[in-house]
């Protein structure tokens, strides 16, 4: 017979309690993320086999700035999108610091900085960055690297980093296509590169709202019907998976609630 650990007991193993709390936090984060289903359909030049490695993703996104984009030859038409990704990571880190109370500076100033970052018209000032530096870890490398390792252990930051890394990979691919188009002396490189763009997007929200967006170039594409059919199949498969996940989460929460109720009943029974 296996006894269920009493999470209210003071004798519970600290590591077990920490893992249980982390699990509950992850569960909360997942519940927030599954309130909407988003399906995007793109046509790409090639599919990269690169896997997501958090440290490498963080290292590659950290130095993005106007100067960096110019020095590395990124096509100017993509600069705003690269900088937007960098701002997302900066914002996520500030929210992480506020939640964990990690920074010594005034929390109100940090909230004001987050508000500025949230303004889509505001430019990113890389000199004001709060992110730990993975490239030149200041005077105390061990402390700086430890900050990054703790950051990459945070499940919410890690999910944001993964999404930003996927979007950056799409931008990198489009940048290569634009460079090839310019090398071939195309008259309109941006207009002629039709790959690596989202042709169809569907968003289904938990409250019942459904949003469908189609790029105008889709209707001029020679494979329009195939792209639309693939998108419809993606939406159908996504809906099925989404409903399955929702059902799993509801059953899990019900199980935890019932288990908690049984524990309370046993506690009162033993006291009487």
Describe the structure.
The structure is a single chain. The protein is mainly alpha-helical. It is built from nine helices and three strands; from the N terminus they run αβαααααααββα. A three-stranded antiparallel beta sheet has the order 1-2-3, with helices on one face. A hairpin with a 4-residue loop joins strand 2 (197-205) and strand 3. Helix 4 packs antiparallel against helix 5 and helix 4 runs antiparallel to helix 7. The longest helix has 48 residues, at 224-271. The chain is flat, with a radius of gyration of 24 Å.
What are the SSEs and their pairings?
Layout: H1 14-33, E1 36-43, H2 54-61, H3 66-71, H4 79-100, H5 107-118, H6 141-152, H7 155-183, H8 189-192, E2 197-205, E3 210-214, H9 224-271
Antiparallel strand pairs: 1-2, 2-3
Helix pairs in contact: 2-7, 4-5, 4-7
How many helices? The count is 9
- Give the percentage of residues in beta strands: 5-15%
Helix percent reads 55-70%
Return the structural class: mainly alpha
User: Which segments are poorly predicted (pLDDT under 50) over 5 or more consecutive residues?
Assistant: 1-7
Let me know the number of strands. Answer: 3
Shape, principal axes of CA atoms = flat
The gyration radius over C-alpha positions equals: 24 Å
* Straight-line distance between termini: 25 Å
Q: What's the SSE pattern?
A: HEHHHHHHHEEH
Instruction: Describe the largest sheet.
Output: 3 strands, antiparallel
Name the average pLDDT: 81
Strand order of the largest sheet: 1-2-3
């Amino acid at each position: 017979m296996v006894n269920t650990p009493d999470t209210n007991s003071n004798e519970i193993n600290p590591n077990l309690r920490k893992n249980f709390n982390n699990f509950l936090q992850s569960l909360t984060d997942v519940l927030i993320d599954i309130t909407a289903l988003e399906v995007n359909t793109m046509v790409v030049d090639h599919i990269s086999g690169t896997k997501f490695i958090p440290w490498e993703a963080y290292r590659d996104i950290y130095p993005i700035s106007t100067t960096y984009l110019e020095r590395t030859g990124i096509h100017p038409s993509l600069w705003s999108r690269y900088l937007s990704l960098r701002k997302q990571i900066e914002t996520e880190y500030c929210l992480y610091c506020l939640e964990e109370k990690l920074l010594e500076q005034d929390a109100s100033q940090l909230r004001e900085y987050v508000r500025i970052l949230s303004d889509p018209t505001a430019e990113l000032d890389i000199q004001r960055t709060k992110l730990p530096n993975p490239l030149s870890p200041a005077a105390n490398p061990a402390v700086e690297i430890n900050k990054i390792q703790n950051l990459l252990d945070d499940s919410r930051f890690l999910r944001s980093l993964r999404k930003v890394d996927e979007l950056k990979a799409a931008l990198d691919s489009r940048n290569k296509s634009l460079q090839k188009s310019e090398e071939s002396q195309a008259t309109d490189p941006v207009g002629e590169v039709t790959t690596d763009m989202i042709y169809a997007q569907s968003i289904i929200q938990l409250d019942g709202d459904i949003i469908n967006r189609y790029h105008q170039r889709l209707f001029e594409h020679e494979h329009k019907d195939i792209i639309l059919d693939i998108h419809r199949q993606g939406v159908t498969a996504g809906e099925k998976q989404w409903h399955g996940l929702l059902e799993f989460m509801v059953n899990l929460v019900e199980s935890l609630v019932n288990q908690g109720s049984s524990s309370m009943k046993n506690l009162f029974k033993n006291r009487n």
